[in-house]
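Below is how a single chain appears once it has passed through the pipeline. First comes the sequence as given, then the structure the pipeline wrote out for it. We keep one example in the README because the format questions we get most often are answered faster by looking than by reading.
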Amino acid sequence: MRVLGIETSCDETGVAIVDTAPWEAGKPAGMGLLGQALYSQIAMHIDYGGVVPELASRDHIKRILPLINQVLKETPGGLEDIDAIAFTQGPGLAGALLVGASVAKGMALALNKPVLGIHHLEGHLLSPLLADDANIQFPFVALLVSGGHTQLMKVTGVGEYTILGETLDDAAGEAFDKTAKMLGLSYPGGPAVSNLAKTGNPSTHQFPRPMKHSGDLDFSFAGLKTSLLTQVKKVTAANNGHLSDSAKADVARGFVDAIVEVLVSKSINALKQSGLTTLVVAGGVGANEQLRESLAQSCSKEGFSVHYPPMHLCTDNGAMIAFAGAMRLKKNPQLATKDWGFDVRPRWPLDDLN
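Resulting structure:
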């Protein structure tokens, strides 16, 4: 089965084609990634300090067909070899989602191919299986950590997800972006804060570790953000309204250490409470070096294994949507429909997939 995947939920336009033959033969699923293309809108949104929905939608319209043509040229065969089309139906920006949905449905109608709407977060959850060295078996605990979501869940199979804990306010990625703004760093904030933290002194600022000892698996990062803002104002005032590069690095280091410690602690507790031994990390913040290093050390100490998507698949991409679509169709071929009407779900709880 070959599946064309289209991702347009926010500020990346992603297209990919996957073939199920390798993983059906017991080989790494990543071998079935036949071609992919990705365009990021970061440069366009930098001046605004975040994603502008209308601009994002217009850019998806501009990019999506050239990207589809690019992937088709890279992939042996042609449109006639595509068995199904998968697209991100939600959650995400409504206008952006409509671009991908309309193109996917239009292609499916023209080619008389089945089409399937995919939950964006499910794409992230399953993307670690695309790693060349992935040997991940269900069930496992998943840490989904991105700009819009921070959740721990038990994954017992495709479409079988139980939320164990989630953020009560800001997502981890959102906290990174807001910290970057406080420090005058460029968008996107996550990589900028992470890189700056590498040169900071770990003992200068000891920020709170929100809900680390709450006894549950929920998160809260609003208090950490407030504490950081207070400290930034204090340090700035003490230096005549100036925040030096070294002072910024120290604040960034304190922030990263705090948020990573909470994410790691909650993840280890989720594994212990669930009785599972495998942790899968997905989402954009999953690319964070400090988080990966700390999780590797803690999981190794406790006898757990931890897995990530390939670095180039941590951000939004078409490969994860194509792969999630292929896995869905393999489990239940009746999900593939020839319904040419389209709608999107900007708000779509992952629990609804069950």
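The mean pLDDT is 94.

See the next section for the split statistics.
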